[in-house]
Specification:
With about 150 residues, the chain is of the alpha+beta class. Helix content is about 25%, strand content about 30%. It has helices at about 95-115, 135-145; strands at about 5-10, 10-20, 25-30, 35-45, 50-55, 85-90, 120-125. Strand 1 (about 5-10) and strand 2 form a beta hairpin. Helix 1 (about 95-115) crosses helix 2.
Length: about 150
């Protein structure tokens, strides 16, 4: 996997990372605008689904996010107050569900990194196949983490 690169133009910050997920070159780009954070995940030049996740929703247990309550695999679950919504793509239920899973996990990473973050997260997905093993999912999320 290549190391992430960063570029900045005025208030817009862009970071990129790439790596092979299940033998397929996967490119991730994070672009931070003043009002939104855009993350794209592409394989084979594909970008077929767009999802947004508002981070400015009221979290009834915001104080609990500083206390590690979950252990093991449960600690990797996305925050329950985040509600991803498909904007474009997701032609079938399976693709929409997996896209929303990625979106909720990515938004959770961003909110965990900075609990004061209130911008909307916009995710563009272009995965070559809908189904992903647990390892592929974690590797994809790890690539995204490198861009945050």
């Amino acid at each position: 996997m290549s190391s992430p690169t960063t570029s900045s133009h005025s208030a817009i910050i862009t970071k990129q990372a790439a790596g092979y997920i299940d033998g397929v070159l996967t490119d991730v780009m994070s672009t931070s605008f003043s009002d939104k954070i855009m993350i794209t995940i592409t394989q084979n030049g594909r970008l077929a689904q767009w999802i947004h996740v508002p981070l400015d929703v009221v979290n009834p247990s915001a104080a609990d996010q500083y206390i590690p309550s979950a252990t093991g695999e449960d600690s990797l679950l996305p925050m329950t107050h985040l509600t991803p919504k498909t904007l474009l793509g997701g032609a079938n239920q399976e693709r929409e569900t997996i896209g929303q899973l990625y979106a909720a996990q990515i938004a959770s990473l961003i909110a965990s990194k900075d609990p004061q973050e209130k911008r909307t997260v916009v995710i563009g997905l272009g995965l070559s196949k809908v189904e992903a093993s647990r390892e592929d999912f974690y590797n994809t999320i790890d690539l995204v983490r490198k861009c945050l």
